[in-house]
Every structure is written in structure tokens, then in C-alpha cells.
Amino acid sequence: MRNIETRHLRYFIAVAQEGSIIAASRALSITQPALSRQIQDLEANIGVPLFERHAKGVQLTDAGMSFLQDARQSLLQLEQARDRAHRIAQGQTGSFTLGIMPSYLASPVTLAILAHFREQNPEILLSIEPLLSLQQAQAIRSEELDGGIMAWRAPDDASLNGIALYHERFVLAMPAQPSAPAKRARRLADIAGERFVWFNREKSSAQHNLLIAACAKAGFTPHIVQIGTDTPTILGLVAAGMGCALVPASSQRHAPPTIAFIALADLTDGVDIEFVYSAARRSPRVQRFIASVRHVTGKKARPVRGKS
User: Fold this and answer.
1) Does 1 reside within a domain?
2) Across the chain, what does the average pLDDT equal?
């Protein structure tokens, strides 16, 4: 006994609709004997007659009427499954999980990219995961994230590609007190005697190293009194009067009003904020997100590959 195939269901539905094997064979462009054998095979496979045969054609049995509903539903579900698979393969539906550094979510560039992606891909479920850059890189490699908006991608990491979105500079953040000495700061050397709230070295070693080197170039080692794991935490500690901090300039958008920001003339080093994705696995949905990145950033959206 052979398995029921989709052609059996199509042939059965055609015969049921036409009420005649001869008429159905014409509609299906197959011979009447061949169609009769297919219907007989189907009935043998099911184990019950689906039609009553008479001189003017065929009529569904009670079992045949029930089977007709199920056959139509089965073909519909198969067609829907085929369509879903095709749309997923083309990146038109499914889910897209994006990591974003908490301090970069409110960036105008980030918001414009997200808005364009949503407009162009309304059937893709976009999920945002607020993660630090190191966490994002690990999650992209393990395929927990489809991509990430992050900084500090290691240039020698061949497993990740990146597209630059914008360049981020650092500024001085300090409690907004007019009498504070740092208020008059114009260069890094002016804050050499201040207490600092600093980024966790284990969470962001590249950022730690860049800022330590900038202070060393200015002739001092910062007196670190408090450690924070991310920019919002550091800003909260600064607002609480724990000390001053060197933070990304974009963090001013979501800072408490009790914090003042100063651009220091010799704090010129910065970092590229990138959309980062796997170099080995680029799904159609990643391609669609890259298209939104290119739309927003234009010619600046050129992929930069890690070195192997």
C-alpha cells in the first residue's frame, strides 16, 4: 500500500467538485483510466469508499464528505507552509534579534535605521537586546544575535564584519555645580586631581585602555574611586557626586539634568560605532538590515572585515 501523496488529494478534490471522473480527468488533463486508478488507490489506502459510483457520475459518501474537508485543509496548510518557508528564505518574515549598547539606542542614526527596517520589513519581528559590546560579539558568534550595534570590534577578529555608522568622541561628565573645579576644565590636565568614575576594565578593556592612554599622554594617572559596567550606571554615579567620568558624547541625550558635559580640547580619540554581524553566517534578514543601514548612512556603509 502506497502513502497518500498531494496528487491524490488534488485528484480527489477535483472529482468531488466535478461529480464525475470523466469531467475531472478533462479538468486535470489526465486520462480517465489513470484518474480512476488514483482514486481507487486513495480509497484502498484509507480503507473506506469515498464515492458512490452511478451511471451519471459519482457522489461523495459520508466518509468522502468528511475527507473532502480534511483534504482541502491539508492542501491549504501545505501551501501556507510552503509560502512561509519561501518568505523566511527570502528574509521577508521571521525574527531578527539585534544587540544594542544601551547608550547608543537613542542615537538619531540608530533610530533612523530601526524605523526604516520596520517600514520595509513589517512582517519581521524585531527584538532588541541591550548588551555591552563584548557581550554582543560573543552572542553574534554563538548565533544568539543576528547582529549588533556596538563599538570596539577587534580588528583582528575574522569572525565578525562591521559597517561603520558614525564616529563617537568622549567628553567629560561631572556634577553640574558651578563651583566645581572641573567646571573650568578645558584640557585633560585640568582634571588630573579629580576623582573618577571609570568603566569596568573586564567589560570594556579597549575603552579602558584608550582613556588611560589619553590621561597618560596628558601627564597623569586617573584616581579611580568607583567602577561602573555601562554608561547609564556611570552617569548615575556622577550625578550622585561620586566623581567625574569620561563618557561617549552621545550619552548626553539621556543623562540626568544634574550632570554637565565638557568637550576637552585634547581628548580627540574616539571609536567607530558599527553594525556588526557574523562573517560566516549572513541570513537574508541580516541582508535586509544591512540594506536599511546603507539607506540611512549612504556611502559610509561599507563593510569592514576582520583580519584573519
Assistant:
1) no
2) 89
Do 51 and 39 touch, CB atoms closer than 8 A?
yes
Please provide the DSSP assignment of 211-277 as one string: HHHHHHHTT---EEEEEESSHHHHHHHHHTTS-BEEEEGGGGGG--TTEEEE--TT---EEEEEEEE
Q: Residue 133 is which amino acid?
A: S
Gyration radius from the chain CA atoms: 32
Average pLDDT over residues 232-243: 93
Tell me, yes or no, whether 275 and 145 share the same domain: yes
In degrees and rounded to multiples of 5, residue 75 shows phi and psi of -65, -35
| Cβ neighbours of 76 (radius 10 Å) | 10
Same domain, 230 and 280: yes
User: What are the backbone angles phi and psi of residue 21, rounded to the nearest 5°?
Assistant: -70, -35
What 8-state DSSP symbol labels residue 4?
P
For position 80, what pLDDT does the model report? 79
Share of the chain above pLDDT 70, in %: 92
The whole-angstrom separation of Cα 12 and Cα 60 is 10
CA distance 92 to 72: 26
Which residue range forms the structural domain that includes residue 212? 94-308
Q: Residue 19: left (phi > 0), alpha (psi -120 to 50), or beta?
A: left
- Mean pLDDT (whole number) for 28-34: 91
Let me know: does 42 contact 101? Beta carbons within 8 Å: no
Q: Give me the number of domains the chain comprises.
A: 2
**Contact predicate 149/99, CB 8 Å:** yes
- Segment 102-108 shows an average pLDDT of 87
- 253 vs 304, residue with greater confidence: 253
Average pLDDT of the residues in 92-96: 76
Say if residue 176's pLDDT is above 90: no
Count of other CB atoms within 10 angstroms of residue 294: 18
